[in-house]
Amino acid sequence: MRGRRAAGAASASASVADQDQNKHEGRTTRRSAKTVVLPCDVKAENNVSVSSVKEDTAVSSSVEDVKPSLPSLASRFKRAEKKKISHRSQEECSVDAKTNVKSQKRNKIVIEYESAVKKEKWEPENWIDTLHNIREMRKSRDAPVDTMGCDKCMDDDAEPQVMRYQALLSLMLSSQTKDVVTHAAMERLRKHGCTIENILKTDDQILEDLIHPVGFKKTKVKYIKRTSEILRDQYNSDIPDTVEKLCGLPGVGPKMAHLCMQSGWGIVTGIGVDTHVHRISNRIGWVPRPTKTPEETRKALEDWLPTDLWQEVNHLLVGFGQQICRPVGPHCGTCSNSKICPYAKSPTKSPRKGSM
Ligand code: SF4
Asked: Which atom of ligand 1 is closest in space to residue 344's alpha carbon?
């Protein structure tokens, strides 16, 4: 009995010692758990490490009270790993998303930049100074176009539709003809009776005599007669009110149509580009590259010149070409643009000289 008691005591003592040790080990385990790196949720829930649990489960149930079983831990560990992976994925997604947002922002900036570049329009260097100088040189308004231009050839006392017909006729006569000649011919026609009905009644030869010395008078008389018939039959003895319809009349081109819309209807539809405007635009560099025809020049000018200058620029440049920037022997020596004009700076080398 004593032995049993001793053995029991020893056993009890050993058990107590084991418990103490286990408790000690449990504390050790808990302490060691603080130093082992585990998935954060496992550490938070159990405050133990897997290696500690393996040792503890063999010796003490008291520690088991506070520790989960291996399968439970393993499954939690797996869940933790999944969470970690999931967390990483979320972080990666988040990073990816941020990267995408950043790249989208960058792309957007690039697109905006590209669109801004595309919107940038060509315009000539120094064009405002050039325009200002021409205005100053044309201040006196004493060029032939100022007093005898096509818009000065109408009978101010006539009916509006008769005035519009006269505006159209003066433009048809002005082609390849000086303003002074056109103006005199229109004066004679007005005295004769410049209405659609009267012109249609007049013999071709008489009309040729009336408009002489206008250039290409035979052809122009034919065009005037055919146009007058169309106006009488299709437009109620008035002129059409669009560029397209005006261009459909015999002998009427885009330059005449745009100018006729201005002088006949008071509507600015485009720049009237004659030989003066064409030549000067090339000399002063108002076209991005040399142009060969007035129509090409008109399109190039309309690409950059502000619309509110379209009406002014025809008269301004025609008079400037009649007085200073003449076709042959331009007066560059006295021109205010000589320091900024490409033609004046390089009169022999300028490619624009070839387009005159
Ligand atoms: S400098 Fe000569 S070419 Fe140039 S605008 Fe004046 S006149 Fe014309």
From this structure: 1
